[in-house]
Amino acid sequence: MKQSKIMDEPDREIVFLSDREIESSDREWYEHPEWKGIRLKDLLTGKDTGNKFSYHLVHIEKNCEIPKHLHEKEWELNRMIKGKGLFIFDNKEITLSAGQTFATPPGVSHAVSSYDSEMSLLALFIPVSD
Predict the structure, then answer these.
(1) Model pLDDT, residue 6
(2) What's this model's pTM, rounded to 2 decimal places?
(3) Where along the chain do its domains lie?
(4) The CATH number of domain 30-126 is 1.20.1050.10
């Protein structure tokens, strides 16, 4: 079995698949097309999984937010890996820090805001919507 690298930085991830490993350091960051201060790395896309799910590294810059939105058909699971922030789930506000996870069912509005520091999270969408 191939020995894996240990990642020292929380923004570096490895996805282990039966036939390969995907290192986030090999993927490019891109700016979200609508939301200022939000960058993403696609670790697994619908193309990789037959549209069963997608998996992304998300970085939210200081004093920025992912505004209130919802997904009609997708569950969204997020695991905080760096920093702290505010998760707004429907109308409930929850303070989150590294190591915590939140799950949003389809059709439920939600938002994420960073505090006075940057934050990173892993986002899993099930299934992938068109």
Answers:
(1) 33
(2) 0.87
(3) 30-126
(4) no
